[in-house]
Amino acid sequence: DFSGRQSELLAGALRALGSARPHLTLLHVTESPVARAFGRVAADAETVDDAERLETYAIALRQHGFAVDARLGSGDQVRELARLVAECRAELVILGGHGHRGLWDWLYGTTADKLRHRVAASVLVVPLGP
Predict the structure, then answer these.
(1) The model's pTM
(2) Which burial class, exposed, middle or buried, applies to 20 when counting CB atoms under 10 A from its CB (0-12, 13-18, 19+)?
(3) How far is CA 15 from CA 9, 21, 68, 96, in A?
(4) Residue 117: DSSP 8-state
(5) Burial class (CB in 10 A: 0-12, 13-18, 19+), 14
(6) For residue 22, which phi and psi values (nearest 5 degrees)?
(7) Could you please report the per-residue DSSP string of 28-94?
(8) How far apart are CA 6 and CA 97, in angstroms?
(9) 57-69: pLDDT as tens digits
(10) CB 112, CB 97: distance < 8 Å
(11) Tens-place pLDDT, residues 85-121
């Protein structure tokens, strides 16, 4: 989600994968007002920045021997992630857990919890702390 903890999430994901070198697909959903209104044809600054940032991570992983592609969605985070997961036929989805608990989960829910109900893939949450 580009909250500043992406490196921590990628490190946790790579630890979970161990020595395996599966094909990776990096997914991100831009949630700007323009992206929500215009979907995949949005071209606002946030969408462009998100695409560039996602590709930067893909390049770094390729340099470490992974086959990687990146897919950018737009709009509702859970709905769009579920669509992207189905589209790329993912077997495992790795998400960062931000440590929300109690009232925050009740108010906002969790992306991981909502997503796991919408995909056929296994979902692994890498704890990122509060």
Answers:
(1) 0.83
(2) exposed
(3) 10, 11, 17, 13
(4) T
(5) middle
(6) -75, 170
(7) EEE--HHHHHHGGG---HHHHHHHHHHHHHHHHHHHTT--EEEEEEESSHHHHHHHHHHHTT-SEEE
(8) 11
(9) 999 999 989 999 9
(10) yes
(11) 999 999 999 988 766 555 555 444 578 888 999 999 9
Amino acid, res. 82: A
The two tokens of residue 81 are: 């992630």
From residue 23, alpha-carbon distances to 49, 58, 93 in Å are 24, 11, 12
User: What does the alpha-carbon distance between residue 82 and residue 48 come to, in Å, rounded to a whole number?
Assistant: 22
Task: Give the integer Cα–Cα distance in Å for 8 and 3.
Answer: 11
Among 126, 21, 94, which Cα is nearest to 64's? 21
Cβ burial 113-126 (10 Å sphere, 16+ → b, else e): eebbeebebebbbb
* CB within 8 Å of 107: residues ≥ 6 apart: none
CA–CA separation, 29 and 23 (whole Å): 20
For residues 93 and 57, the answer to whether their CB atoms sit within 8 Å is no
Place of tokens 């592609």: 69
